[in-house]
Amino acid sequence: MNKILSLIVVAYLLTGCASTRSMEDNNSDIEPDIDRSSLPEGIFTYYDNPARYYLPVEYFLIGKFVTQNGCLLFETNNELYTPLLPAIYTKYIKGDAQITVNNEVYNIGETGDVSARPIEREYVGNFITEGQSQCLLDKFMRIEVRGMRYT
Fold first, then answer.
1. Among residues 145, 143, 146, which one has the least CA distance to residue 43?
2. Is pLDDT of 6 > 60?
């Protein structure tokens, strides 16, 4: 009986350690080998891990990128969001009239369909690059690379 109880405790401990490790791996969105010299500056970006599984669903919103008080923001349904852009796929220089995400070019101030979805702060994770603190609103919009889904 003691052997069985001991085996159960050991199995539980090993399973708990393994599941904690896999959760850490799943939450690790920072790629240490990113060439930071080519990343956009002054905006909030995230690392889009190509090895991560994505559902074959794309989100589209009608909205536009706007600049306000030196901040790049995303507007949809008359609400402003801090856009979170995929770091290695985004090209933008502060003051430009366009922002490019992979092959999609968005003119700032022009309304169009954008592959994006709202995201809660607790699911944002770590930023690869950051904008000014006053540009960090309470609402976030995760801008995604259109048509790129990995399995």
1. 143
2. no
Residue 140 has phi, psi (to 5 degrees) of: -120, 145
Q: State pLDDT tens for residues 22-47.
A: 333 333 444 546 666 667 778 888 87
Q: 106: Cβ–Cβ under 8 A, 6 or more apart, which residues?
A: 64, 65, 98, 99, 100, 112, 114
Backbone angles phi, psi at 92, to 5 degrees: -160, 135
Structure token digits, residue 62: 């009608």
- Given this model, what pLDDT does residue 97 score? 92
CA 43, CA 26: separation in Å to the nearest integer?
24
Q: What does the DSSP 8-state code read for residue 89?
A: G
Which residue is associated with the tokens 């599941």? 19
Q: Indicate the SS3 state at residue 124.
A: coil
End-to-end CA distance of the chain: 45
For residue 109 the two structure tokens come to 């101030």
DSSP secondary-structure letter at 25?
H
pLDDT of the residue at 145:
83
Residue 23: the pLDDT is 33
Taking residues 129-146, report their average pLDDT.
89
Contact 146, 101 (CB under 8 A): yes
